Structure formats: structure tokens, C-alpha cells
Amino acid sequence: MRRAALALLALQRLLAEEPLHEMGPPSTREMFPLFLPPIAYQPADPRPLGGGRWRWALHWMEANTFQFSDVFDQNPPRDTQGRVAVTREYVEARLKDYADLPTVYFFDEEIARFEVEGRYGLTDDTDLWLRFPVQNHTGGFLDPLIEGFHKIGFEQYGRDLVLQNQVTLVVVQHGKLIFFNNERILGKPQDPVLGLTHRLLNRGPWTLSATFSLKPPLTCTYGVYQSGWDQSYGLTGAWWNGGRHAFYFGGAYLHRPPGSADYNTIGFHDGTGAHATWEYRRWPRVQPFLQLYWQSGFMAAQPHQAFDRPSLQHDLGAHWHWTPHITLSFHYLNNITHQGNTADMGLGLSLTSHF
After folding, report:
1. Which of 164-174 are b and which e, b meaning 16 or more Cβ less than 10 Å from the residue's Cβ?
2. Mind telling me which Pfam families this protein's record contains (predicted)?
């Protein structure tokens, strides 16, 4: 009983002692393979740090994708010996089945994205920030977990027909194989994103800021696809009156100009994104949050795919203010619309330092 009482007392102190850090909305990002080359919507913190102040963060997201054109619903991978390994030979043997279709795709991979984020207060109202990502593309480890979850009533067709934890990316156009990859990619730098946030309104519980970001084309994704000078123009805001509930909100317009020739054949166009976030602040050191993350379609309408449709995902987690200057955040990312144009799910951690 004494140990239980001491443990309860320690928990109470953990929840109540340290001062609150303003974390802003989670910087959720789409992890679908086609969304890796261009700029994607990411929420930005509307509250400036203050002149001369720094904030550094390391984000990790492990996201699993198993999505394919709907023609596989009628013509799924099959093997009399068990689960299918989707190899180049397997695909090439079936190209004639897709000769009349403009585009057929099959994506099965897991991406670990590590992102260093630095933010600096230029003035009391203006912050400059930088995001630099590095990615691993592998078969991952989440397939058995996801299959187990789907067995309780949320079935995703086809997962039990192919090998677990394989990495396979296939794009076929009019019966011709134009892209195939089943190689693991480790430690691959992606394009950095430079951003600027300027506060427009700071009145009572309300904060509203303008945000701009630029992604220079410095790298190639999968060694082939290079975007243009992508840009984002948006507004981001917050409301908190000192009570238990805080809210963040915002949206942006995303401009995606042409890039390399192979990239341009994908047909990306401009888009929009938005977020709405609730954060519970009953305890100063631990704040659960739920963020809804919406984005418009990113390609023109084509048969047997849904890349022209919008999508909605959630980012569910909690901030733990470990010390007065260090915060650890947990994330569970999952799609809500289930239209085959987002990653299936992701698990993430963020470590943030304020000084």
C-alpha cells in the first residue's frame, strides 16, 4: 500500500508540476509514396517564439502503405503455394492484362521519415524555420500489426494475399511497365523546406499568423522524380482562453510547378490543405491532442484510382513535457476516408527542445 501511495503521488507530481510549453499543432505530413516528391501541407505553429529564441525538434514517423488500383479487386495477385512475392517477373508476366488501362499502380512499402526542424525568432512577431528530412524505404515491421487489427472487423482487401513486410512499387501505363522498385533505400535525404511565419493578430484568446514556405528541388525521389520550386501560402491560428481546451486551425494553398520530365508525367497539380486541432490542458505536463488533417486531390481524375479526391486523416497523441525545456510527443496517424490515396497508418515520436 505504501508503494502504491508513493507511485500515485509521483504520478500527481508528474502531471502537475512543470510549466506549460506552447507546442502548436503537430506538423502532420502525408506519407503516401506519390506525395513524397512534391510539397505537402503541414500545419505551422501560429505563435512566434519571441525575438532571439530557438526551438529544435526531431520527428520520426513510421508509415505503412498498401494501396493499389481497383482493377486488382477483380484480378488479385494469386499463387497456389501461398502469399505472393510481387516481383518484376510476376508483373511483366501480367502486363497484357492491363493493355487497355491508362494507369495501373501497386504500392506496398513502409517509410520511416526522420525530420530535423529548427525554428528561430527573428522578431517578437516573426519566426524563420527549416525542416530537413531523411527517409528509409523498406518493408518495415507494421504489416503483422495492421493485419491483426483488420481481423477484428476492419478488413483491408488483399493484405493477406501478398508477403508481409515486402517493398514493391509498380506503375503500368497501357500495358507498359514504366516504374518498378523493390529495393530498400536507407538514409535518403529529401528536399528541405524553408518557412516564415508572421503574426497578424494577437488579441485576447486569439492568435492569427500568415505563413509561407518554399521547397527547393535539391534531391530526386526514388532516384527518378524531382519536383520544381514548390511553395505554400497559408494562414494558421490558435484559440485558448486559459482553460482546459485549446484549439488550433489553419489552411494553405500549395503551388507545385513543373519539375523533371519523369516527374511531370505523373501530373501533379496545385492543391490545398487544412487542419483543425483540439488539445486538452487539464494537466500542465501532459496534453492529449486530436488533429484532423485534410488535403485536396493532387492529380487529375483517371479510371481505377482516386488521386483526384480529397482525403481526411487524424493525428491522435499526447505531449509530455519531460523537463522545463524538453517535450516528448506521441503520434498515431490513420486515414479516415479510406479512398486509396493516403498512407494506411503511421506511428510517430517527436522530441522538442525550447531555449
Report:
1. bebbbbbbbee
2. DUF3187
Who has greater pLDDT, 219 or 152?
A: 219
The tens digit of pLDDT for each residue in 84-143 reads 777 888 888 888 888 888 888 888 899 999 999 999 999 999 999 999 999 999 887 876
Residue corresponding to grid cell 501480367: 94
* Residue 281, C-alpha cell as written in the block: 490542458
- Give the pLDDT score at 160: 62
Q: Please say if the pLDDT value at position 10 is more than 80.
A: no
